[in-house]
Specification:
Layout (H helix, E strand, L loop, with lengths): L1 H25 L9 H8 L8 H20 L1 H24 L7 H21 L9 H10 L3 H14 L7 H23 L5 E7 L3 H12 L4 E6 L6 E10 L3 H11 L4 E7 L14
Helix pairs in contact: 1-4, 1-5, 2-3, 3-4, 3-6, 5-8, 6-7, 7-8, 9-10
Length: 282
């Protein structure tokens, strides 16, 4: 029940933030961002008698229905709450909240950042805002297209279509907004997590190296059986996850014992477990 409450609360708060971003920054300044707001801005010159907030709400509802039909109950369950409250919130905010008087570039940045934080907060707890998330999901289901590529294609097409009605400057603002929104999504997903690195290395002196890592840094490690793709030689590969501040220390330890060791360092977006999300029990 506690997790369910968190998911519901996160969905509501995230959707409110998204609606605020769209109503106060995106729509008033005609920013061609991705999502239903960008589609509304493109369609508005074709049907000027229909307010942009109504167009955006209508597109959101249509996408929810299409997603429910094509993607099934799981999509519907994850998206229903956000889809239900987004449209009325957007119309209410657009009609009753004042437009923030700023330079278009500032509106582009803040609109994208706030919108990304809202979407990211919903996604963090397993939800979805629906809307223009649906086309990339359909491309994934029917054409096995990578989701990130699908999102990029849909956003790029949305912004690119703006050239039919707007000038290049408006389109460039839209690209900035899409980029900033992606940053906002990533930051929302990372909040509360530990910044960490995954380090993998191959060395004949792996046991001495991991003994010092365990002693000096109090970090565990995993030994993986590996073999050379060309030589077919059986080797041991060591994987360990450390805090970002400890990365160079690990590299120095490896080089201390084996300057020819093969080392790979990767970003870790989420870490759960002892030493990161909770303290070790004594």
């Amino acid at each position: 029940m506690k997790e369910k409450f968190k998911r519901i609360l996160a969905t509501i708060v995230g959707t409110v933030i998204l609606a605020l971003a769209v109503s106060m920054f995106i729509i008033p300044y005609n920013i061609l961002t991705g999502g239903v707001a960008g589609v509304a801005i493109i369609l508005h010159p074709l049907i000027p008698e229909v307010p942009k907030d109504v167009i955006a709400s209508s597109v959101s509802i249509v996408m929810f229905v299409v997603g429910t039909i094509c993607l099934g109950k799981e999509f519907s369950f994850k998206t229903a709450l956000s889809a239900i409250i987004y449209s009325p919130l957007l119309i209410i905010f657009s009609r009753h909240l004042p437009t923030v008087e700023v330079e278009p570039l500032i509106a582009c940045i803040y609109g994208g950042l706030l919108g990304g934080l809202g979407v990211g907060l919903v996604m963090r707890y397993g939800g979805s805002t629906g809307g223009m998330d649906v086309p990339p999901l359909l491309l994934k289901k029917y054409f096995n297209l990578d989701l990130s590529k699908g999102i990029f294609i849909v956003d790029a097409l949305t912004v690119g279509m703006g050239l039919l009605e707007y000038n290049l400057g408006v389109v460039l603002f839209g690209l900035i907004s899409v980029y900033v929104m992606n940053i906002g999504v990533q930051k929302a997903l990372e909040v509360g997590g530990s910044r960490a690195k995954e380090i993998k290395f191959v060395s004949n002196r792996y046991q001495e190296i991991i003994d010092e890592i365990h002693t000096d840094l109090n970090r565990g490690s995993t030994i993986i059986d590996a073999s050379g793709g060309y030589t077919k030689e059986e080797r041991k590969m060591v994987m360990c996850v450390v805090k970002e501040s400890q990365t160079q220390h690990v590299i120095d330890i490896v080089n201390k014992y084996d300057e020819t060791a093969f080392i790979v360092v990767l970003d870790v977006t989420a870490v759960h477990g002892e030493g990161f999300t909770f303290a070790a029990r004594m």
